[in-house]
Write a sequence for this structure.
């Protein structure tokens, strides 16, 4: 193909992307109020096992949640539903990020708890379909990826608000190989998309006694898109005069998370999708590893909760799946409880995760038979949640 033809083909692809994105902006603008779960007669919770260690840690998490919600389940107020078919084999078979029937089932649930899933990459053994995490986030418009990281003994209590539907992820599988030598991907930042995530972060700060918000971009270099994100922060911040805010660049932010003196001062952090992906892995590693961190993917109507790590197929191949740490999934479960209105249970479970994982450590997960199984660790967590003495001792010590 000569260059002129290649450019025309690329323009056509670019035109399609622009059209889709303009339509998406209209959908965002037309959005309704946030769902109030406390008003529902019945809350349907879908369980998506995923791949690799996913089904194992999903089961550990479901067991814990079912014990904690025993009375609600008995009353018919909460209903758990297992949704099959979000495996890489089934996705590859249908050549779809989310097979249609699975998506239909997901949409019948108010919230879902999802195990890690395999994300294909060009050149691996699977067809190069879109990541199903990304597809679910876009399909259900789960625009806020909320990731807490806490290290109480160091005074660290971070809440990350990662934008979840835009940036390099918006059309990550629709880039253009213009010629064999030239590849272009698209970074998409919209005003309403930025405004809603930044507003979610400021609102969280206001409602939770936080005093500052850090907005992370690389607006000095990526002037148009990151520049817009920062402009939106300036605009939104005006509605929250009681909250101070600062813009930081992603490179220095990445460095400063490692600075013991500086890092304590960060509270609420809001950032575009890809920076959020990377920075939250770094932060989770400080808390004890990505295996300890959960996340909430929240939109106005639906929400999906998940671990922040991958599916660790090697652990399954080596027969170690039952020793996989379910903390991330259970942390996501605690966020789910909080989101659907069981705030006290969510808080106690999340505190139990800190106590068992960072302080008491009566059972330790090592990922192999030298440590506890996920099932035993789940039981240890439940004992801790249900022991008021342990709870109040730590509440005073750690969360004072
Ligand atoms: C995450 C993961 C996903 C992402 C992958 C699996 C597509 O890394 O949830 O952070 O990049 O968002
Ligand atoms: Mg990630």
């Amino acid at each position: 193909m000569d260059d002129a033809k290649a450019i025309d083909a690329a323009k056509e692809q670019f035109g399609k992307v622009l059209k889709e994105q303009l339509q998406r902006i209209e959908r965002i603008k037309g959005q309704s109020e946030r769902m109030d779960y406390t008003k529902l007669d019945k809350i349907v919770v879908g369980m998506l096992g995923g791949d690799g260690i996913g089904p194992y840690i999903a089961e550990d998490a479901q067991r814990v949640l079912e014990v904690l919600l025993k009375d609600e389940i008995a009353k018919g107020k909460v209903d758990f539903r297992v949704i099959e078919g979000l495996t890489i084999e089934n996705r590859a078979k249908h050549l779809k990020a989310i097979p249609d029937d699975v998506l239909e089932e997901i949409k019948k649930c108010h919230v879902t708890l999802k195990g890690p899933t395999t994300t294909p990459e060009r050149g691996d053994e699977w067809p190069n379909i879109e990541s199903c995490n990304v597809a679910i986030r876009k399909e259900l418009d789960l625009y806020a990826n909320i990731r807490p990281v806490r290290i109480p003994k160091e005074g660290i209590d971070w809440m990350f608000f990662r934008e979840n539907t835009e940036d390099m992820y918006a059309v990550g599988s629709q880039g253009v190989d213009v010629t064999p030598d030239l590849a272009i991907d698209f970074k998409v930042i919209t005003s309403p998309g930025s405004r809603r995530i930044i507003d979610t972060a400021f609102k969280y700060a206001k409602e939770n006694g936080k005093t500052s918000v850090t907005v992370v971009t690389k607006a000095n270099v990526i002037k148009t898109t990151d520049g817009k994100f920062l402009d939106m922060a300036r605009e939104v911040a005006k509605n929250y005069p009681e909250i101070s805010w600062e813009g930081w660049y992603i490179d220095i932010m990445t460095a400063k998370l490692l600075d013991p003196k500086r890092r304590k001062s960060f509270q609420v952090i809001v950032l575009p999708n890809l920076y959020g992906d990377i920075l939250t892995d770094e932060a989770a590693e400080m808390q004890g590893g990505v295996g300890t961190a959960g996340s909430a993917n929240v939109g106005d109507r639906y929400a999906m909760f998940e671990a922040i790590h991958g599916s660790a197929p090697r652990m399954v191949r080596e027969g170690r799946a039952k020793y996989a740490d379910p903390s991330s999934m259970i942390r996501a479960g605690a966020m789910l409880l909080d989101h659907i209105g069981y705030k006290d249970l969510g808080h106690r479970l999340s505190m139990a995760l800190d106590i068992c994982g960072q302080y008491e450590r009566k059972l330790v997960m090592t990922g192999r038979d030298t440590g506890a199984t996920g099932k035993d660790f789940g039981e240890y967590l439940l004992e801790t949640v249900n022991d008021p003495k342990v709870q109040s001792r730590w509440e005073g010590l750690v969360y004072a």
